[in-house]
Structure formats: structure tokens, C-alpha cells
């Protein structure tokens, strides 16, 4: 039996998803010709982090379409996923691609990306999604927490003005995506006939998706950046293990873990006092997960 569409909100139901911003930024508004290559060209850490991000975001249609299909029975959610979320994720990919090509023109971006997609594509399947639509929205809150804090961290690592501007715009998009996923999660839980999952079940899904953040996407992307870098950074990392360890430790040391934990706890809808008790120990866990 097909699930009912999200019902109109009553006064007792959660707030609706945030309103769509009237004017969204465009890749063309970024002046890639103004990149200060003297500030970025020798940044081995940012090279690996930005190229990896460019691969994942440029291949985002592989999973965004799966997710919109997953919510075909919920027209409001599916429409936002298809018309806004997928579009913005792909725009992030285009922005990262153009930045990487301008900052490191010697890197064979297209060849490396195609190699990445050949391995990454088969991993993006419907089977990876939670069968319970509400729980998958909670899991998406975890992913958006990861991208929000990741791009904030990269922005803080940047001293190149065009990159700093671009990362600020992308981070703002990810915050908006998080707010939508959280609002839709609450709507589905409150819909007539819905059987809300227990906090324990939501917590398990949130924790499992948190553990998965480092596994497929980032590791696959990073390996393909390493495999195609050629003679770049000859005096830098001498093995994949070394660069992997170095950049994950760097990100971990700058990660805004307190912010990440606050975002991760929202799908549990805990009393504020309980949230305050557990935020600090969970912040330490978040840092260890990223650095492990």
C-alpha cells in the first residue's frame, strides 16, 4: 500500500520546511580568473580536500535521483529534492571543478573524475537508503551536518579570497538543506497514521550514518586524486596512507564539533536540558570519528 502524501499542517504539527530563498547564487558570479594562485598552488592539503569534494559533488546526481525516487509517495518532499536539492548539489560540483581547474591546471581532472565515477557509481544504490522514509530523512540530517561542518572547516583553512567566498556560499546551502531535511522528518513523523520511531531507533540510524561518513565517499574520492596526481607535490606526502592520515587529522583538529553535535541531536527531539548534558561528550566522539 502506498504511503499517504504529507498532510497539511495543523496548529499542533511541526513548522514547515524553510521557505526557498528568492535568489540563489550562480557559479558564474564567482570570478575564477581572480584566484590568487600564489596562495593556493602549493597548498597540498587543500588540493586533496578540494579535488575530493569536486568529485563527490559532481557525481551527486547518482544519489540525489535515488533519493527523489525514494520519496515518490511524498510529492512535496520529492519536488524539493528534484527541483532544488539536486540542482544545488550539482552546482556545487561545477563550482569546485572550475576552481580546481583554475588553481591546479596541470591536474587531469576529467580523467580522474571518470575513474572515480567508475568505482563510486555502483555504490549509489537504492538499497543504501533506509526503508523507513522518516528515518532516511534523519540520516540525511547527518550527511548535511557533515557537509556543513566540513565546508566550514575548509573555509577556515583558506586564505585565498575566491575560495573563501565560494565555500561560504556552499556552506550556506548545506545549512539550508539540513533545515529542509529536519523539517520534512518532523512532518512525516507527525502525519496522520504515521507510527513515529522511538528515539532509540532514530539514534541508531543517526549513529550508523555518522560512522559511514568517512567510508565510501571521501575515501574513494581521495584514492582517485592520489592515483592521478602525477608529479604534483613531489616533496609532499610519499604515500596514500600518509596524505590520508594528514588531512583527516587536519580536518579533525578544526572541526566545529560542538556545532556538529547540536545539529546531530535535533532529529532526536530531546528536551533542551538533556541535550546540554550530552553535547560535550558527543563532540569528542565526533572528532574521533573524523580522525580515525
From TrEMBL:
Biased composition (Low complexity): 1-14
Molecular function per GO: oxidoreductase activity
Region called Disordered, residue ranges: 1-20
Organism: Ottowia testudinis
Residue ranges the record marks as coiled coil: none
Identification of the protein by name: Ferritin-like domain-containing protein
Stored InterPro entries: Ferritin-like_SF, RNR-like
Amino acid at each position: 500500500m502506498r504511503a499517504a502524501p504529507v498532510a497539511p499542517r495543523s496548529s499542533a504539527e511541526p513548522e514547515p520546511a524553510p521557505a526557498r530563498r528568492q535568489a540563489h547564487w550562480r557559479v558564474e558570479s564567482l570570478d575564477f580568473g581572480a584566484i590568487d594562485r600564489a596562495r593556493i598552488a602549493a597548498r597540498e592539503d587543500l588540493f586533496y580536500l578540494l579535488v575530493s569534494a569536486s568529485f563527490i559533488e559532481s557525481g551527486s546526481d547518482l544519489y540525489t535521483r535515488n533519493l527523489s525516487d525514494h520519496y515518490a509517495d511524498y510529492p512535496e518532499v520529492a519536488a524539493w529534492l528534484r527541483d532544488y536539492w539536486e540542482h544545488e548539489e550539482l552546482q556545487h560540483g561545477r563550482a569546485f571543478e572550475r576552481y580546481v581547474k583554475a588553481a591546479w591546471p596541470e591536474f587531469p581532472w576529467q580523467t580522474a573524475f571518470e575513474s572515480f565515477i567508475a568505482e563510486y557509481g555502483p555504490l549509489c544504490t537504492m538499497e543504501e537508503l533506509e526503508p523507513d522514509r522518516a528515518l532516511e530523512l534523519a540520516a540525511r540530517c547527518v550527511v548535511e551536518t557533515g557537509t556543513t561542518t566540513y565546508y566550514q572547516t575548509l573555509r577556515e583553512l583558506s586564505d585565498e579570497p575566491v575560495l573563501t567566498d565560494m565555500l561560504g556560499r556552499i556552506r550556506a546551502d548545506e545549512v539550508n538543506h539540513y533545515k529542509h531535511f529536519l523539517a520534512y522528518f518532523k512532518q512525516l513523523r507527525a502525519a496522520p497514521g504515521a507510527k513515529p520511531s522511538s528515539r532509540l531507533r532514530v539514534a541508531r540510524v543517526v549513529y550508523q550514518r555518522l560512522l559511514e561518513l568517512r567510508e565510501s565517499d571521501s575515501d574513494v574520492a581521495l584514492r582517485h586524486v592520489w592515483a592521478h596526481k602525477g608529479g604534483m607535490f613531489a616533496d609532499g606526502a610519499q604515500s596514500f596512507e600518509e596524505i590520508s592520515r594528514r588531512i583527516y587529522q587536519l580536518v579533525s583538529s578544526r572541526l566545529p564539533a560542538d556545532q556538529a553535535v547540536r545539529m546531530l541531536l535535533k532529529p532526536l527531539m530531546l528536551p533542551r536540558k538533556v541535550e546540554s548534558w550530552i553535547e560535550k561528550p558527543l563532540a569528542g566522539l565526533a572528532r574521533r570519528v573524523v580522525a580515525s
